[in-house]
């Protein structure tokens, strides 16, 4: 009886953070001095980054319909309202460089990352407060986190009200004018971006066009942060987003320099500095060979799949009509009939979509037979190291008000994912070529890979780095792998570097090195952006060539077993990712005891006694 009474009391508090966001207050609206149809709405933020004197801002850049028509995007009848969260550098912000940061996916939100990954803070287990992160990337760099493409995270074209079933992870639109249903622990209501796969970006190139218009507006209105250099960093599918964005930015810069872009208010030359990609996905043919290989032959000595699965993966990759054949067909047709890769040819869209789906299902996803994590080959697929406390934090009314949210936050947009899938963005070619173009324009490229990740593994990243064709390709190939000295007592990995191009393998890193190796990830980021050698951070990168071993695979890793000590906790904001079937059933039938979104049991009382108590 005590448990049931407690559940009812807790449920009442849970509902408070599951309602529609409050109407934003204290919003400043700037109308572009160049275009009355472009506005920025924002407010100063005082959460997450609490270092005295360090400022932050969050808000939206509102781009009108048909803004992309001049780039060949027809029928853009919706607004592009892109959410940003900006943090000043903790050190000398008005002279610091600036980096934009993207999550991958595609279509995963970046606005949760300041709270859980490489940003100024980490959310505490209560889901309602934060602790400063000493390894934040804004220590010396101004950071601008963007939810992109539109409909992702807090970015929107239009809104609709929905119900959310936590157990089944289903979202159902509420008919216009209907009453709000009664909520309970598993049924919530919220305001989400419109679920329309045709009101978002149709692939990475389309997204790049939208981001250029965002950048023109943002940097010209926030003039105090017109840094001497702008970088772009991201993880995973950012390997496609980011080079597409920076290539288009630089092409537009050149048009402006030559007087070929006459649009008033869109003539700011963006000073591009560096592109940093963590565990990036680039070109399908050049990287997918690594899936069967990494599954059985990795530096951790783990054979994740048996010989039968390995042979099936290899056969499906290489056989006539298999993954590579379909990818090459997609690439050839795309270059011929849709060279901009913006989805203008339905035949190409279909062939490329089918290629991506075939390769996913018949090569990449056969790894699921291993029952190991896609993001960390050393641990079980079921392992959740820590509940996603940031998910709860972003649903708190005071946080929604502090950020000026127009909708409830979501971790991803399935509709935007479907839009990318529909045009075959996964299988389209040419992303590695964009790196060569940028390098020959003097823009740095840093590729960094946690070496425990299967999904975007370091073997594929190493191959991608060697496939980049630019002026100094031979010099890059001639460079050796040198140890990365994270600090005076720890070696964090290996790096091959020549001048502006580097490839880093981060020891014991996962799908994004900042998760488990935050200091090494920060050092690589800072050294790259400030034009130093990645190995030590003490030598100018200009003309620098790393020295060391020729074969990075010769350096083996020990499998760490610390995960075995983790007491896994079931969390209400991620039932499918953190809970057993029995725990989910208890939540569903109302017999679970829940405190601050944590399901109370032996594990949670031992791990978070300050939240759930010590038990009876």
From TrEMBL:
<dbReference type="GO" id="GO:0006508">
    <property type="term" value="P:proteolysis"/>
</dbReference>
<keyword id="KW-0645">Protease</keyword>
<keyword id="KW-0121">Carboxypeptidase</keyword>
<keyword id="KW-0378">Hydrolase</keyword>
<dbReference type="GO" id="GO:0004185">
    <property type="term" value="F:serine-type carboxypeptidase activity"/>
</dbReference>
<feature type="signal peptide">
    <location>
        <begin position="1"/>
        <end position="18"/>
    </location>
</feature>
<dbReference type="InterPro" id="IPR001563">
    <property type="entry name" value="Peptidase_S10"/>
</dbReference>
<dbReference type="Pfam" id="PF00450">
    <property type="entry name" value="Peptidase_S10"/>
</dbReference>
<keyword id="KW-0732">Signal</keyword>
<protein>
    <recommendedName>
        <fullName>Carboxypeptidase</fullName>
    </recommendedName>
</protein>
<dbReference type="GO" id="GO:0000324">
    <property type="term" value="C:fungal-type vacuole"/>
</dbReference>
<comment type="similarity">
    <text>Belongs to the peptidase S10 family.</text>
</comment>
<keyword id="KW-0325">Glycoprotein</keyword>
<dbReference type="InterPro" id="IPR029058">
    <property type="entry name" value="AB_hydrolase_fold"/>
</dbReference>
């Amino acid at each position: 009886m005590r448990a049931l009474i407690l559940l009812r009391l807790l449920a009442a508090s849970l509902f408070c953070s599951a309602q529609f966001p409050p109407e934003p207050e204290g919003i400043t609206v700037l109308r572009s001095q160049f275009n009355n149809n472009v506005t920025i709405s924002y407010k100063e933020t005082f959460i997450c980054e609490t270092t005295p004197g360090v400022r932050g801002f969050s808000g939206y850049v509102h781009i009108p319909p048909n803004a992309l028509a001049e780039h060949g995007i027809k029928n853009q009848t919706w607004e592009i309202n892109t959410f940003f969260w900006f943090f000043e550098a903790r050190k000398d912000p008005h002279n610091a460089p600036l980096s934009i940061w993207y999550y991958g996916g595609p279509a995963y939100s970046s606005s949760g990352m300041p709270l859980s990954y490489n940003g100024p803070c980490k959310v505490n287990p209560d889901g309602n407060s934060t602790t400063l992160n000493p390894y934040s990337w804004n220590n010396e760099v101004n950071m601008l986190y963007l939810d992109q493409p539109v409909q992702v995270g807090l970015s929107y074209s239009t809104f609709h009200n929905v119900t959310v079933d936590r157990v089944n992870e289903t979202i159902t639109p509420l008919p216009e004018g209907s009453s709000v249903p009664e909520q309970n622990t598993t049924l919530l209501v919220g305001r989400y971006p419109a679920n329309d796969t045709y009101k978002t970006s149709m692939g990475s190139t389309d997204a790049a066009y939208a981001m250029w218009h965002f950048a023109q507006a943002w940097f010209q209105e926030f003039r105090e942060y017109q840094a001497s250099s702008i970088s772009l960093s991201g993880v995973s599918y950012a390997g496609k987003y980011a080079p597409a964005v920076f290539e288009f930015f630089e092409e537009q810069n050149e048009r402006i320099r030559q007087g070929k872009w006459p649009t008033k208010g869109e003539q700011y030359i963006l000073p591009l500095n560096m592109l940093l990609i963590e565990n990036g996905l680039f070109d399908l043919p050049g990287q997918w060979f690594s899936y069967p290989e990494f599954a059985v032959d990795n530096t951790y000595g783990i054979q994740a799949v048996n010989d039968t699965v390995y042979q099936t993966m290899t056969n499906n990759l290489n056989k006539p009509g298999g993954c590579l054949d379909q990818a090459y067909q997609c690439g050839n047709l795309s270059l011929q009939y849709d060279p901009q890769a913006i989805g203008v040819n339905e035949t190409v869209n279909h062939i490329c979509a089918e290629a991506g789906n075939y390769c996913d299902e018949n090569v990449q996803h056969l790894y699921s037979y291993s029952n190991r994590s896609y993001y960390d080959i050393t641990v079980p697929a079921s392992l959740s190291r820590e509940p996603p406390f940031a998910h709860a934090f972003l649903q708190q009314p005071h946080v929604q008000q502090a950020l000026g949210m127009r909708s409830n936050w979501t971790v991803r947009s399935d509709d935007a994912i479907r839009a990318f899938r529909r045009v075959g963005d996964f299988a389209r070619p040419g992303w590695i070529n964009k790196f060569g173009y940028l390098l020959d324009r003097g823009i740095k490229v840093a590729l960094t890979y946690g070496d425990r990740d299967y999904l975007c593994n370091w073997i594929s990243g190493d191959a991608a780095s060697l496939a980049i064709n630019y002026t100094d390709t031979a010099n890059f190939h001639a460079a050796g792998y040198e140890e990365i000295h994270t600090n005076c007592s720890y070696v964090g990995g290996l790096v091959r570097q020549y001048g502006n191009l580097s490839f880093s393998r981060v020891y014991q890193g996962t799908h994004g090195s900042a998760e488990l190796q935050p200091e090494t990830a920060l050092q690589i980021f800072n050294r790259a952006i400030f034009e130093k050698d990645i190995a030590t951070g003490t030598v100018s990168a200009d003309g620098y060539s790393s020295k060391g071993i020729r074969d990075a695979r010769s350096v083996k890793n020990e499998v760490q077993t610390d995960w075995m000590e983790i007491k896994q906790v079931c969390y209400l904001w991620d039932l499918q990712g953190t809970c057993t079937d029995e725990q989910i059933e208890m939540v569903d039938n109302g017999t679970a005891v829940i405190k601050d979104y944590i399901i109370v049991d032996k594990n949670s009382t031992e791990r978070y006694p300050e939240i759930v108590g010590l038990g009876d």
